[in-house]
Amino acid sequence: MKRLLWLSVLVLGAGALVAPLAAGSSGAATSRPSPVHSATAKGPHAAKFLACMVTDTGGIDDRSFNASSWQGVQEAESATIGGKYLQSTSESNYVPNIDAFIAEKCGIIVTVGFLMGDDTESAAKAHPSQKFAIVDYTYSPSIKNIDALVFDTVQDGFLGGYLAAGMSKTHKVATFGGLKLPTVTIYMDGFWDGVQYYNRKHGTDVKVLGWSEATQNGSFTGDFTNQTKGEQLTATFISEGADIIFPVAGNVGLGAAAAVKAADNSGAKVNMEWVDTDGCVSAPQYCKYFITSVTKGIQSAVKSAIVTTAAGKFKGGNYIGTLANGGAVLAPYHDFASKVPAALQKEIAAIKAGIESGKILTPTRSPV
Amino acid sequence: MSENLTGPGGNGPEHKAGPVEGPPGAEGSPGDTGPDAATAAQANVATSLLNAVLEGNSAVVTFLAIVTAIIIGGLLIAFSSPTVLHAWSHLFSAPGAAFSTAWAVAASAFSAMLEGAIFNPHTISAAFHGGSIAAIFNPLSETAVNATPLILSGLAVALAFRAGLFNIGATGQFIGGAMIAGWIGFAVHMPMILHVVVAVIGGFIGGSITGGFVGFMKARTGAHEVIVTIMLNYVMEFLILFLLGLAVFRAPGLPNPVSPPVDNNAMLPHLAGATLRINAGFLVALAAALAVGWLLNRTTVGFELRTVGANPNAARAAGMSPERTWITVMLICGGLAGLAGASVILGTDFALTPQIYGTYGIDAITVALLGRAKPGGVVLAALLYGSLNAGGVTMQAQTQIPVDITTVIQALIVLFVAAPPLVREIYHLRGRRNREGGQLLAKGWSS
Description:
Largest sheet of chain B: none
Radius of gyration of chain A: 24 Å
Distance between the termini of chain B: 27 Å
Order of helices and strands of chain A: HHEHEHEHEEHEHEEEHEHEHEHEH
Largest interface: A-B, 50 and 69 residues
Number of domains of chain B: 1
Mean pLDDT of chain B: 85
Radius of gyration of chain B: 24 Å
Strand content of chain B: under 5%
Structural class of chain B: mainly alpha
Shape of chain B: globular
Number of strands of chain B: 0
Number of helices of chain A: 12
Largest sheet of chain A: 6 strands, parallel
Number of strands of chain A: 13
CATH topology of the largest domain in chain A: Rossmann fold
Shape of chain A: globular
Number of domains of chain A: 2
Oligomer: heterodimer
Helix content of chain B: over 70%
Low-confidence stretches of chain A: 9-45
């Protein structure tokens, strides 16, 4: 009896595998009988412009560039634009994932991260009519059917550094990264430059712990996930006297925030700046410690790439997000609006205008 | 006291000099008992684990483990789908719809998986209407491509297993192989055929150095290979990151830590036309499996290896040197994992990146367990995992079900394989309850 039970389970299981295949092959090839598509699709699929995104191995919920890109896709979704993504579990998945989307005739294929640079390029060259966008990668010379989206975050990093230097009581600020990648160190270069600029203007000697643009050496936690390491490193910086911390390490920054909170609870006056997104939105529980956030406009750049392509105005070539075009901006002060001295706020605004007009240069050794 | 701290390795020559003295440790000086007891305990753990893996599972249990995992996977797919959950919220008003929706969602996922891993009927009709014939074989090609590094790294773990060693370091050895093979691929320029052969051999050597170091540490200092391999994984992960920061390894003109692509001459040749990714790496993997089988069962080295795996003390008493065997085995295992790295860098990915190692090294452990540490078993297990990976890509593309579900299924398979009593209980099979391999296995991992 019991054997009968599991036998029947087996048969049912096997049936589940075989039945749809049989149905698929006997059914006409014109309409693919895919129950999920008809069950989950919100409207007629064919009529929609499809924005298709391939994640890198970090996955869709990495709270970093994959997540931001996907938010951009979701924001672009509308009655006429649909969005979907494929997650890559290994680097060998990039090619099949891109190929799957080409076969699906996506309106635009968004690939995320420099690791997909080469695969996106060869796919774009093999399919000249297929439109692509890639986040955090540029081509030289630029490629006609790829929107290459990069962000000159050294600019808002510069503002963040200047602000930190102006707000520091101990004349020590600190920054650290997740991994020593150009997309990380560009923020740290900007932060470092901003502090030096403040020192020159005010004749102060605010020190930066954790990074030096000159030597390109500094503190890194080793990944973008281990919050404990961020907490330890931040606690070390605080014990060395830093009172403003700028983590450039995705999720690891939450560990830094925990350390800042612990220091605050024990009476020390320590604050921080968030990175990539507006911290008061993405990590609101720590908003009261965030002086500001040094953001990167992946979300809006991806959204606008999709929307313009859907409207038939695909640009192609390289796009560089800057202070001027809103691709790399300093987030609002939120809780600190009243705490940042008006004079300092004015200086920041003036420097912002200076960078936008090109009067203030923001050199970096991690060019976009 | 200091000479006693050298551990089991240091005691080796002493016992070899007088194997007739009896079991090592029994008659040694009091200071000797520590390291020897450790060796004995380790040997017990290794033996019981080996027994569990080799004998604890019958083919039936393995098969049922796979079926059970797939059924649970199907349930997960069905009940993580919003459509199904919506249908089930109306279970009492429309019970038929609830079940049929769940069924349809799970069935479409698995049929997409089959289409991605084995055969897609639509490609046949497409071929008749001017489509490419190669497309018919694309699923099989993808399965083979996904299986290739798993076969090689799985063999690296399985062979070590047979010698009583837990090789957790396939990741580091993979990186060692990929680094050397990749460097030969893009920095050295050689004529056709020669280049790819040299690069593949370089991959073997790169992995061999990494793995051999582990064997050397264990033989000379008694350092436990689990600790050394795990730590070495970190060392290698950061080593490749460091190297990609140097001008020698970085593609010129780009700020990113990515190496230049390997030369065309260094790429593993495609086996079935340029559109299919299946390449000579698959043949290398199959040849490696045959070679490992031959080594294990037909050579003196293999005999010593299995004897040391069964009981290092007995092997030593019989005049074999476990130390030498450990070094030899780890050299070969490292080389196999290095070949896996070469197969990826020269076969599919072509450029070194900081994440080139993916999860191959970890998956290798599960493949070796599922393949019961036998070369043939490893090939079959790797093909199963390869097909799940290849099918997962298609499943995700067609149905938008998260690809992570394939990882869950893979994990469940190993869970059930490692726990035969559980499977026997589920299916009410009469098993050898006195010799439950699963309990031994559990004890092996925890002690």
